[in-house]
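Protocol step 4 of 6.
Sequence for PLAT domain-containing protein (Goodea atripinnis) entered exactly as in the expression construct, tag removed. Do not edit the line below.
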Amino acid sequence: VVIYCPFTGIEQTFPCGMWLDEDEGDGLIERELYEMVSLRQKKHKKYPWSLWIWTSDIKGAGTDAQVFLQIYGEKGKSDEIKLENNSDNFEQGQIDKFMIEMPDIGRLLKLRIWHEKRNPFAGWHLAKVTLFKTLTMDKYSFECGRWLDINEDDNEIVRELPAKGTLIDEPLPLIKYLVTICTGNVSGSGTDARVFLNIIGDMGDTGERLMFMSKNNVNKFEKGN
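Step 5 output, structure tokens:
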């Protein structure tokens, strides 16, 4: 048995290696386990947050796709967080509430949220996201009001949302970038593989973005394009 306490960052291991079975070993079905101190580990502390996700109240706004998010702060970023999607999550006009744990990443700067379904029926219209730090009740809001849909808006299924709140003087600006990718002219240089791009800067990164829609070529990444 391994027990991890997010508030202290301590992980403790309690070995057993015995049956809990009336018909095996000594027939006992209850064990008293003692920690093996040599296996104790100190990990990063994590703090509890309440996460509220607001799906817009417009026709077709809901989704059954698996939703992920990543949160950025002044001291770093969270892991990618997979939001367990029950059959009734992310329905039209609904607020879904989750409890998550994160290390101390300082004052929050932005949130990236996405789903992975690139099919015509997976679109999602996200209204906003709010985060509350349970211990201090610091509150952050991330406004969206856009589709994450291959058939709507700009056809993207990932959104970068700047943080707003009492601790934020000015939210980060959203900036559009024009990305030019030049395929070489040597024989066999083109590809039909899916190509991803991640831009990394002082304030974080964009995460992996699929280069799926070229502005000037129907067939992407061909020789000399």
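Step 6, annotate. The first strand starts at residue 2 and ends at 5.
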